[in-house]
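The protein record filed below.
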Amino acid sequence: MRSSPRKSGVKFQIFASDISEEALAFAREGVYPESIRGDVSAEQLRLFFTLEERGYQVSRQLRDVIVFTVHDLLVDPPFSRLDLISCRNLLIYLQPEEQQKVLSLFHFGLNETGFLFLGISETIGQLGGLFEPISNTLRVYRRSALGRARPRVLARELGERARALWPRLPDRVQHRAPGLGDIAQHLLLGIYAPAAVLVDRSYRALYFFGPTDRYLRVAPGEPSQDLVPMLREGLASRFRSAVRQANREKTVISVGGAQVRRNGDTTSVRISARPMPHDGEDLLLVTFEDEPERKVVEAAETPAEASRVAQLEQELDDTRKELESTIRELEESNQEFSAMNEEALSINEEFQSTNEELETSREELQSLNEELTTTNTQLHETLERQRGTADDLQNILNSSDPATLFLDDNLSIRYFTPSAAAVFKIIASDVGRPLGDLANPLAGIDLLGDARAVLDKLTPLRREVRTEAGAWYLCVISPHRTRDNRIQGVVITLFNISELKAEEEETRAARAYAEAIIDTIREPLVVFDKAMRVVSASQSFYQYFQAVPANTIGQFLPDTDAHHLDTRAMRAFLDRIGAGDGSPQSSEIEVDLRDLPQTGRRTLVVTAVEIHNTGVADTRILLTFNDITDFRDTERQLAAAREAAEQANLAKSRFLAAASHDLRQPLQTLTLLHDVLHSRLADEKAAELAQRAQETLDSMSGMLDALLDINQLEAGAIRPDLIDFPIDVLLDKLKTQFTYHASARGLDWRVMPCRRAVHSDPHLLEQMVRNLVSNAIRYTAEGKVLLGCRRHGDNLRIEVWDTGVGIAEDEIPRIFGEYHQVPGQTGPWPWPCDRAAPGPIIGPSNYCALPAF
């Protein structure tokens, strides 16, 4: 591990266990004081540690491969397939039996050639066969491949069986000097007690008593507890017969006639078997006794023959009995074998069923293993997401401006943000300190008391506080709740509102300044909220309606001292404002102010405008009152004057129409006489004077025609007859009519042709254009006069250009008046036109626009 786990490419997992959750939580943090620099090399600090405010913390890459879990070595199942177990300074606090148990579990949990690392004061004790030492000084051991830890169940069964077979010893052996009775009892047992052996159903010797060497001997070969090989020659058949019959009949069986050679002589021995049940197991106490010698009976046979016959008969009888017993036992064994065979068949079927169940279980385990693998992957992904979320939350808390302090149930510090460190003057080592030990930076409040109150009542607390340095904060104290709604402490959050307080002061000053300005406005002003209640009013409102603020603020407008506004029209207007979309609205109402200085009925224009602030709840409605009573009176007077002027204008039009009609007859007579006179004149001078007289008559005729047309237009007698016609017809006609006049004045008269058609009255259009051309020729001393058309979108613009004297700029607004004449010029200017000042080039002087197609 000379590099980080991820960079090294070696995958490993470390399990760290303890029975204390608090110790695991502390270990999971992995924080060490800065003093470890004296024990840890600089390279290891760089690779595996990160320097923080609290000290050196184990790097995240190394903490990710460590699983911290609560585990009890003596109760919980052990870990398995481990390569290294480090258990230092734990075994010394356990009893020897518990130490052996723990070491056996370690042997079970380690892989082949796995390592065990113990403390300096700890050893493997009597389990040297399970581990082999690598370094006795450092207490490093390797798991032995030959040694096997016996299963706990088997060891318990062997212990119980041994206690059942062997005689129980007293718990405590009292060491005292033997008495005379004990010595005499021991002597009598040694003289008169027979040799005896305690055996089980398998003929295994469990206990020997008395002079058994007279009947038993040590069998050659490996030591064994089987009693049959130990019997001297001639005792085996009688021993088996007595034991079998005693097991079958459950009573004391004694078999005699057994012959054993001892010291060159043959001795008869009687073997007795006594059943002795013990702890659920059938045991037998077998005794050996020498039979007394039989008296010699004289007979015809020789003593040797008689003894031999008797011996043979006895052996034959014993053989017959033994054979019968063997046959019975064989029959019983056959029956038992049949039952065992049936049981074996049944067990075989059970084994097959069990095998199928095991196959199913194996498949289920395999499926479960896959599910566990998937779940492990999902848990790993979830853990990674939680780690990412924890990092995000850590960054949010560290970068957030509010100062946050987390307290536990005992009101001790659990965590704090960097902003809180600056406010409360705390450092990383203060984690775990009670809040009461810290100096309260907030003036005027009991922070500890408020935290206790919130923890008791579970009700958040909000208040504005100020520090000794003058900074303002919004202090919010709320209970710390978990996802399952458990309370684990208190959270104290301080929001810096110093700028907000400064803005409030500025807003308060600006409001006072605005109210001072509003008080100088003569029109009454009222501000409503969304509920149409009065928020504020100007001084002019109180003065106009003789109201006071105490009976106005917070009331509906018709319910205030300004009861004069309690009219149907005013209430309808207020209802429209409340149901409107926020657009400005105005209404004209009448109020009766007879009891006020403004006596009589007054006409008021009420205008409502919404004033939007930052939030919707701060929306206000401004209502202004404008007294237009005097304006309405003036308006009525102007209407009467306008009507009188219209009557006078009508009379004037009638007079002008009559005068024009009366003057037309003498003018026609003068025109006729002029034509006669002009035809008879031969003198050039007289003809020139006659020509001027003709021009004067034409001018007077044009004036009369204009007067008549204006009167007809005002009276509505002339109605235009709109038709579609080509504009070239009009242009050619005007070109012919004005060619002589332009030539007489020495002017360059040009008409530009146009192929467009227009929609207009040909007669009225001809009069307008003729008037424009006539004025242009009349007031142009030298130069050019140009008549043409220009298209602008869907309209055709007829323009007259000239190089005449032009019109002064200040006279242009007045040239559209009837019979207005520019000073220094002669003749009327009756048609709407536009003349530009003269210049070095021809510019537009007169024009009119018509729809073209």
In short: The first strand starts at residue 14 and ends at 18. The CA atoms of residues 491 and 813 lie 79 Å apart.
